[in-house]
Amino acid sequence: MTSKETGKIITGANPYMPLWEHVPDGEPRVFTYNGETRIYLYGSHDTKKTDYCGPDYVVWSAPVDDPTDWTCHGICYTASDGGDLYAPDVVQKGDTFYMYAAENRGSSIMLVKSKCPWGPFTDPVKTELGFDPGILVDDDGRVYAFWGFCESHAGELNDDMATLKPETVRHHIMGHSKPFWIKEDDGHVNAVDGFFEASSPRKINGKYVLVYSKRYEYNRPDLGVFGSCNGFLSYKWSDSPLGEYKSGGDISFNGGEVIKGPDGNGIMTYQWGNNHGSLMKVKDQWYIFYHRQTGCNEYARQAMVEPVSIATGKDGKIYIGNITYENGEPVGSDVVECTSQGFFTGGLDAYSYISAGYACHIYDGTGKPNYQGNAEGTNEGVRRAHIMPVYESDSSPVVDIQSGATIGFKYLDFGSSGASRLVIKGDFPKGFKINVRTGAFDGDIIASATYDITMPEIVFELGEKITGKHAVYFEFITEDDSLRAMFDGFRFEI
Q: 373-493: which CATH number, 3.40.30.10, 2.60.120.260, 3.40.50.720, 3.30.70.330?
C-alpha cells in the first residue's frame, strides 16, 4: 500500500483504527459475505479506562483491496452477565458465524451465533472452553479449540461447536510461564516456551501454527529485555492439529523501535505490555496483527499490524516473521520491526497531516528503556513522554516530552518532488530547541529551531529537499529540565 493524499489527514496507519478507538486482543479474519471480501476484527473493548476491557464487543472491517479504510459496524455483543468481556474469537462454518465470547473476565466462554459477520450475535450457550479461546476450522470441516492462561490446552469440538470430544483433549501443549503474582507452588514452570495466554491457531502452508503470547523470564539483550516481559507474540508449529508442537520463534514485540545502546544491547523505545493477536493473509501478503499500549498503563490499547514473511524449510519447519536465509534456504526468523506505517507499506504520505499518535519511537535519551517499570507492571506515577489516550479526537498527542527526548516515525514517503518545508503543531514552551533528523534518532539533522516564546506551531525551512522513503525523528532539547512539551502532529510541504 502507498499513501499519496496531499492535504489530507493520515488515517488507517499504525494503529490502523481511528486513534480514539481502543480495541485490543484482535483475532483478524477474512470473510466473504454478500459477495464482498473484507478483513474483520473482533476484540475486547478498552472502554473502562481504569481497568481492562468493558462489557461489549465492537466489530470493525476493511476491504481487502484497501485495508487502510476501516468501518465500524457497532456493538455486536453485550455480556449476558453484565460483566467485562475479554478476548473473543470468531469463525465461520457453513453460513453461520460463531463467536466465542469471554464473559466474566474470560472465566466463562459463551458461544453465540449470527448469520452476518458483524452480528448481532445471540443465543449464548456456555462452552467447555477456557481462557482466551482460539478456534481453527480445518479444511475437512473438523473444528479444534485452543485455550489457557499460563498453561496451554486443546481439543476437538463436537458438531455443537461448544463441547469437546473428551478423547481428543490435550493438556500442557508447551512449557508454561509463572508470573510474579502467582505465589503458590502450583506446578507452573518458567519454561523457554513461556506460554502466557492468547492462543490463536492458524493453518499455513499445510502446517498447523499456534500463535500465542510468550512471557520471557530470561533476558533478550538484543531487544532491550532484561527480566520478565510478556510483550511478545510467538509461535509453535505442528504437522497435525493436535500433534506435537515444535519450536517456532517470535513474530512480534510491542516495545517499539529497538535501537542499539552504547553497550551494544538493544533499547526499546516504547512501553511494552501484554500482547494478543494473530496472523492473517490479506490477498497475497501475510500480516501479524497485535496491539500496543497507550498512556501509562494497559487500559487504552490499540490495534497494530505489520507485514511478515513466511517460508517453509527443506526440513518441513515453517519460518514466520523477519526471516534470514543462507543460500536461498530459510535458517531463522525473529520479530518484525514496529512501524508507524502499518498497511501503508510504501510509507506514510509526508504531505498529509500525521498525528504524533502514530509514533513508534519515544525515547528519553537516557540509555534506559521506555518500559513498564514498577512492580504492578505499569508506568503510573512515572513522568515520561507518552502518547495520550483520546476517545473522541482524530489526533492523539505525545505529552510530557522532556529534554533529550526523541519522537520517531517509520516510515514517510516524500516522493520524487521532494519536501522543502515542515510545519509541526503542539505546545512548545519558551526555550525548547527542536532538531529534525532522518534515518535514525541520532541521524543527520535536516532542520533546527529554537524559540524564545511559547509556540503552538513551528515552521522549518529545510536545507535541501528530501525525496524517497525515510524514517523521521524530532529531538527536543531545553536547559530547563522541569519543562515539558506537547507534540500534536506535523506535515511536510513541497
A: 2.60.120.260
